[in-house]
Amino acid sequence: MSDKPPETQAELSPQRVVVVTGPSGAGRSTAMRALEDIGHEVIDNLPLSLLPRLLDGPPHDHPLAVVVDVRNRDFSVEGFLDMTRALAADVNVAFQLLFLDCSEDVLVHRYSETRRRHPLTPKTTPLEGIHEELELLMPIRARADVLIDTSDLTPHDLRAEIEMWFAPKDSPGLAVSVQSFSYKRGLPRGLDIVMDCRFLRNPHWDPALRALDGRDGAVAEYVQADPDFAAFMQQIDGLATLLIPAYKAEGKSHLSIGFGCTGGQHRSVTVAERFAQTLAQAGWQVSKRHREIERRAIGTSAAQAQGQTA
């Protein structure tokens, strides 16, 4: 038998706890599955009064993810905020509050697609409940350690965001998200660095390329033939070589880099693809997202589904 005295609570590593909340329909179920996949023990709809009991005793073997929302029978904003303040002050707990946000119009659309009833207003239209819940949760939203807006995210994108923020610390390095977007629709939320690609040759003006996107070989060749393309990529690669290790050294776990052009279909996509490939070859953990291409695909799928049910 070992002569080493048993570890005291103070000598143990803090219990990692993620509390997940946000409006109904913002993606909590997807987030729960993603957290489970990266090793969290997920507990859904836990009453606030039971959380202290859950954390009694020595830390659990796995990080915990606790979902708390308006469905909880003892839910209140003040009670929730008191709970987060207590967890944040507990030296034996490594606590983060994840708030999944979503715009009101997108939530209305999601409810109309699923024909679900809103938990706050089960006997009236979902719009009333959505509006009431968003207003109710505003103080909690302001307290969030991690805020993910799911308005424009696919389930795949949300899973990637969850993995970037909450994957175990022994996972490989800093995670980099590379995105393309259209300036006409505004900058995506949460970008750390933005690069403008609108000075490059625009395949939109070539009728043979207009309907394609920057992942297509012909489009990529067209963009890369621009006299300034090689110098542009050299500068971006050099900037990444300088900044990404520095961000990692500062303890940053997620870096989001966006490339924009007019329509978000050709030039920004080509540059994002090329840049992501360079980062991956250098050993960085990289995810890609092409916002406008995804929106177009979703719109096409919805139109096809509507045509089938007409």
Question: Approximately how much beta-strand content do the residues carry?
Answer: 15-25%
- Number of self-contained structural domains: 2
Second rung of CATH, namely the architecture of the largest domain? 3-Layer(aba) Sandwich
Mean pLDDT figure: 84
Alpha-carbon Rg, integer: 23 Å
> Pairing-aware structural class of the strands and helices?
alpha/beta
Q: Cα distance, first to last residue?
A: 74 Å
CATH third-tier fold name of the largest domain = Rossmann fold
Helix tally equals: 11
Largest sheet descriptor: 5 strands, parallel
Strand order of the largest sheet: 2-3-1-4-5
Shape: globular
The amount of helix comes to 40-55%
CATH hierarchy, class of the largest domain: Alpha Beta
What is the β-strand count? 9
Features:
310 residues, alpha/beta, Rossmann fold, 5-stranded parallel β-sheet, 11 helices, 9 strands, 17% strand, globular, disordered N terminus
Descriptive account of the structure:
The chain has two domains: 13-166, Rossmann fold (3-Layer(aba) Sandwich); 175-300, no CATH class. Helix content is 42%, strand content 17%. It contains eleven helices and nine strands. The strands form two sheets. The protein has a five-stranded parallel β-sheet, with helices on both faces. It has a four-stranded parallel β-sheet with strand order 7-8-6-9, with helices on both faces. It is globular and about 65 Å long.
